[in-house]
Amino acid sequence: MHFSLRAALAAITLSCAAPMVASAQVVTDASQIQPGYYKVEPLHTQVSFSVLHFGFSVFEGLFSGASGVLRLDPSQPESSSLSVSIPVSSVLTTNSKLMEELKGGQWLAADQFPKAEFVSVSVKQTGPNDALVSGNLTLHGITYPETLRVHFIGAGVNMLDKKYTVGFDATTTIKRSDFGVKMFVPYVSDDVELRIAGVFEKQDIPAPAASNNK
């Protein structure tokens, strides 16, 4: 019995080793990213948000279904650019009634303003794998300057679809009242913390990308 258990553990170890080989092909040094044009990979790109809810809890939700393009040059990060949009009707929380309210006119007005969009203006590298990406965020029909704190996660060939993929984590805090979304302020916090898991796939044929306005 003891020998069989040891053999089973050995088999499990061997079966788990294969994915680790693929993971070893992912680079975590931003200078090694392949330059070029990328498109958003929407299935694994998401924007999560959190607000202080009536002083009792931090309430969270997310948006999905993003689209957009990234022009990336690791040798000259300042020449990189980003343009991304996301349907606000994709909002998801643990409360179905709240989701419908958030899509309505007192909040995001998804019928009138179906997309939120961020277009970069400048990129400033702040560390080997970090940058500040400043740009214009359009939400609820209002455009306001915002800055993303971006951290490079990894890049390599996705073992499932064999596409060269790059991933980033980005964070920022916006004031929803800047965009005309003032319902229940200050009881539901004006500050909205955003965290973006951004995944992009390299394109064989260059796709158009937003140009930074210098």
From TrEMBL:
SUPFAM superfamilies the UniProt entry points to: YceI-like
Family matches, as Gene3D superfamilies: Lipid/polyisoprenoid-binding, YceI-like
InterPro entries from the UniProt entry: Lipid/polyisoprenoid-bd_YceI, TTHA0802/YceI-like_sf
Keywords, in A-Z order: Signal
Signal keyword on record: yes
SMART domains (UniProt xref): YceI (SM00867)
Keyword Kinase applies: no
Residues making up the signal peptide according to the UniProt record: 1-24
Domain Lipid/polyisoprenoid-binding YceI-like: 37-201
Protein name: Polyisoprenoid-binding protein
Species this protein is from: Bombella intestini
Taxonomic lineage: Bacteria, Pseudomonadati, Pseudomonadota, Alphaproteobacteria, Acetobacterales
